[in-house]
């Protein structure tokens, strides 16, 4: 069996991407922050890290620590972040129906036993 290929470069914890070594400054490697993200203000960095953590959170049972972290995010002062999170979860969890699927469902409901050709 061959060995697993490792990803080249380093992981940026703010934008949650693997980037090349050149994308990091000398001290950025240890901090796991790329040059582009290091130019952001600390509040923007924290907001991006929070959003990435929320969107990358696994489905299923949550540990008590993750539950308490999520509850604290509901009471954040930044309304934009909470609203963005709400709409993000709506896109993930809401069933996405196209107009064609809705028409097919309506047609299935309208056809009765008397309408069948046999």
Automatic annotation (TrEMBL):
Species the sequence originates in: Desulfosporosinus acidiphilus (strain DSM 22704 / JCM 16185 / SJ4)
Name of protein: Uncharacterized protein
